[in-house]
Design goal:
This protein has two helices and two strands. The protein is α+β, with helices and mostly antiparallel strands. A hairpin with a 5-residue loop joins strand 1 and strand 2. The longest helix has 15 residues. The N and C termini lie close together (about 10 Å). The mean pLDDT is about 85. It comes from Sinorhizobium medicae. This is Host range restriction peptidase.
């Protein structure tokens, strides 16, 4: 799980560094809330929030 989170964080950071990225930054973390919560925080550009969610969903599914 830690490796997966690290990979996702790296991918999202790479995307965020591009000029046309749909989000400004993203953070991946994990919390033990009833043994089931994984958290991804994004700071999306207001006009691209849907693209930001889609991008993160796609990257997470690639892992």
């Amino acid at each position: 799980e830690d490796l997966g989170r690290m990979v996702l964080q790296r991918r999202l950071s790479t995307i965020a560094s591009k000029a046309d990225a749909p989000f400004i930054s993203a953070g991946v973390g994990s919390q033990d809330l009833l043994h089931s919560a994984h958290v991804v925080q994004i700071w999306a550009k207001t006009d691209k929030w849907q693209a930001a969610l889609t991008t993160i969903d796609q990257e997470q599914r690639r892992i």
